[in-house]
Amino acid sequence: MQDKILTRMGDGERLWLSNTDLKKDIAEGTADAAERGNVPELTQGEQEQLFTIMADPARIVSVLPGEEVIVSDDGCSMSFYSGQDGGGVGIPMSRMQAVLTYERACGADTTSIGHSDYSYKPVKPIINFETSDYYNISMVTTAPLFYGAQPNMGLYFQPDGPCPNPSELLPLGEIKAALAAQEEAAAMLRDDLVYVGTRLAAIGCEGLNFDTSGSAGDADFMAALEAVADIKKSAPGMPILMGASGEFVIGMHGEVEFNGKRLAGLYPHEQVKVVEDAGADIFGLAVGTSTNRTVAWNLARAVTFLKATTKVADVPVHVNVGMGVCGIPMMEQPPIDSVTRVSKALVQLGKADGL
Amino acid sequence: MHIAHIMASCMGGIRTAGDLVAWIQMTRKMKIHEAKAYVAEKLGIEVMDLTNEEVMRPLREELGIGTVTSVAGSPKGILAKIKIAELLDIQIPSVDLFKSQI
Fold first, then answer.
1. A contacts of B70 (beta carbons < 8 Å)
2. Is the Cβ pair A237, B30 closer than 8 Å?
3. Which of A185, A319, A323 is nearest to A247 (CA)?
4. Which residues, 6+ apart, have CB-to-CB distance to A59 below 8 Å?
C-alpha cells in the first residue's frame, strides 16, 4: 500500500492524503450522515471497502462483472448539443441525432429529451413542439426514452412568476403571506406538471422524469408528489421517475403534507416512502456535495444515506450522480477518477438499483 | 461524465441487455436483482450473460430486438420495441399507441 493516496476535494482540487487521513474522512462522513439522518453508520468492513475503492491506484475503477446496474439519465444526450451552462459540448446536432448517438454509440440503458431550460413551466406554452419531437424520436429509439425536467417552483415567484416571493416576505416577518405564496405557487406547479405529463402520456411517453423535486422546498416537493398521484390516475401505464434535490426536504414552508406525512425535513429513506405512496416507479436519491470536504468524506455520507434508503425501498432507487451530487465534485468537468469511484461505491456498498 | 458512469457501472443498453432490464424496472418497479432475473429467464440465459456482448449480440439479432451495430433490414426503433414488449410481457406506451394506429 502506498503511503499517500491521490484524491480530490469536493470542488475537484487534487490532493494527496495519508491512509490515516483518508480513513478518518470516511469515518467522519458516515458519522455525519448517520447523525443527521438517524440512520446506521457504515460498518467497519464497509468503511474498509470504501477505503479500498478510494485508494485504488488505477485512474479509473469499476464494478465487477455481473454487478452492473441501470444508468438512467436526466437529459444526458442534451450535453452533446447544449452549451457550457448545461455541461454541453456544443456540437451542432439535432435532438434526435443526440439521443440516437447516446443510445447506440454510448450504450446507454435509457435516453431522454427535455426542454433546454429543463423546467416544466416553460414547457407548457410549447407543449405541441415537445410532444411532436418526443413522438418522432420515440419511433426510432429502442432503449426507453424519458421526458425530463425539474418542477422548479422558484419560477412561479416574482419577478419570474406571478406569486409574491417568500424569500422577500420572510425577512420582513410576513410569515402568513410567505406561506400563502408557496401554497399558491404549489397549486400552479401541480397543474402545470399534470398538464405536461398528461399531454406527453397521450403521445405514448415511455417515461416521465420529475428531476430535482423539492428544489424550492417542501411545497415544491408536495406539488410533485401530488402531480405524480394525479397523472397515475389518468395514465397508470406511464412510468414516472421522481428524483429529489437534496439529502433532506428543505422546510421553506414547514407545514405542508402529503397523505398526512409532513414533508419538511424528510431524509432519503423517508422521501422514498412518500414517493412510493404517490405511485412513482423509480426514486432518485440526491445528496449534496460539500466543496470544502474531500470526495471520501462526501462519498461516505452519500453511501450511508443510500444504504439506509435501499434497505427500506420497495421501488428501484437510482442515485443522482451529476455535478455536485452524491460525492461527484462540484465542477464543470467532473474528473473521471472521482466519478468512477463514486459510481462503484454507490453500487457495491449502497446497493443502488441504478444511477 | 455520464460516459464515465456508463463505463464504470452501466449494463450497456442495447449493446447487451441494459435496455431490457431498464424496461422491467420502469414498468414492473422491480429492483435490480429481481429485474435481471426476470429478463434472464425470458431470454433463457444466465444472469451473468445479460452484460456479455458475446452472448447478447447474436441473441438480440436473432430475436429482432435491436442491435447496437446497424444491420440493414434488422428491426430497430418502434418495431424492436414491439418485439421487446412481447418478449418481456410488458406494456410500453409508445408501442400501445403505435399498435392502436395500425
1. 104
2. no
3. A319
4. A336, A337
- For chains A and B, CB pairs below 8 A equal 186
Q: Which residues of A86-108 are buried (b: 16+ CB within 10 A; e: fewer)?
A: bbbeeeeeebbebbbbbbbebbb
pLDDT of A234 above 80: yes
A34 phi and psi angles, rounded to 5 deg: -65, -40
Q: Does A60 touch chain B (CB under 8 A)?
A: yes
Which residues of chain A are within 8 Å of residue B3 when distances are taken between CB atoms?
A: 106
pLDDT tens for A82-132 read 888 888 899 999 999 999 999 999 999 999 999 988 999 999 999 999 999
- Which residue in A79, A143, A282 is closest to B19 by CB distance? A143
B19: nearest CB among A142, A203, A323: A142
pLDDT digit string, tens, across residues A112-126 = 999 988 999 999 999
pTM listed for this prediction: 0.96
Q: Among all residues of chain B, which has the CA nearest to that of A63?
A: B9
